[in-house]
Amino acid sequence: MKKSIICLVALFALALGFTSCEKESAGLTSITYFAEIVLEGDATMVVDKGSEFVDPGFTATMKGEDVTDKVEVNSNVDTSTSGVYSVVYSIVNADGFPASATRTVIVLDLSSAIEGFWACSPASHRTNTNTGADVAYGASFEIMIIDNGDGTYFVDDLLAGWYAQRAGYGDSYAMQATISIADDGTITLESSNVPGWGDAADALSADSKYDAGAKTITYTVTYAGYLDFSVELNKVDL
């Protein structure tokens, strides 16, 4: 008798499973074909401030058919203001499954002596002031500086890629910062933040300097109480 009851329970559970699957799959086709969007041109573009952004275009296919005309394009690009923007291309198939692709558009004043991309010298180094251990960056990592239009500048990683790029932790571990640069080239740290750890720089050295003639920026940023990042940045010509 006990065996029969167990069998009945198992059969009931199996039937319930079939019913559930039927309800969940109601309205779906037996085979789902996903769309694929392919961007033409570069996935990341740099556009000169004040110029016109011309989308290089894209193609979309689904089940071997061209569905480019069914793709929705959303863009927040504003070439009148320096910054990082995006163009998102999206499409949904007959069963409601989405596909998308994103193009990053960076608007910069290419005539600016400060705004743009900067590469750290491989000789830049981090010093542990507790142990005296000194480690060179060993490679040239690029960061970006954007003119905020109010006399200050946004730096996307004041640590020049040490954690975000060198250690491979990703953008959340870049030290975002706002700096000001005086007429004599003296640099002052206005604010900073490392999103991944929720902390900030302790201080920026008083000798931090922008040299217009040499196209260099040099500074030492103290972080976590005992780490000194001595950085030399060189302007990257675009």
What does this protein structure show overall?
The model is unreliable at 1-25 (pLDDT under 50). Strands 8, 9, 10, 11, 12, 13, 14, 15, 16, 17 and 18 form an 11-stranded antiparallel sheet that branches. The longest helix has 23 residues, at 2-24. It is built from 2 helices and 18 strands. The termini are far apart. The protein has 238 residues and is mostly beta strands. It has helices at 2-24, 162-166; strands at residues 36-39, 44-48, 58-62, 65-66, 72-75, 83-92, 98-108, 116-120, 125-128, 134-136, 142-147, 152-155, 176-181, 187-193, 201-204, 209-211, 216-223, 227-235. It folds into 2 domains: 36-108, Immunoglobulins (Immunoglobulin-like, Sandwich), CATH 2.60.40; 116-235, Beta Barrel (Lipocalin).
Could you give a quick summary of the protein structure above?
The chain is mainly beta. The protein has helices at residues 2-24, 162-166; strands at 36-39, 44-48, 58-62, 65-66, 72-75, 83-92, 98-108, 116-120, 125-128, 134-136, 142-147, 152-155, 176-181, 187-193, 201-204, 209-211, 216-223, 227-235. The chain has two domains: 36-108, Immunoglobulins (Immunoglobulin-like, Sandwich), CATH 2.60.40.10; 116-235, Lipocalin.
How many domains? The number is 2
Tally of DSSP β-strands: 18
End-to-end distance, in Å? 83 Å
**Helix/strand order:** HEEEEEEEEEEEEHEEEEEE
Helix content: 10-25%
Average pLDDT taken over every residue: 90
Can you count the helices?
Answer: 2
Biggest sheet, in brief?
Answer: 11 strands, antiparallel
SS strand fraction: 35-45%
Any idea what the CATH architecture of the largest domain is? Beta Barrel
Write the CATH fold name of the largest domain.
Lipocalin
Instruction: Specify the overall morphology.
Output: elongated
Strand-pairing-aware structural class: mainly beta
Detail the poorly predicted runs: 1-25
What is the CA-based Rg, rounded? Answer: 27 Å
Give the C-level CATH assignment of the largest domain.
Answer: Mainly Beta
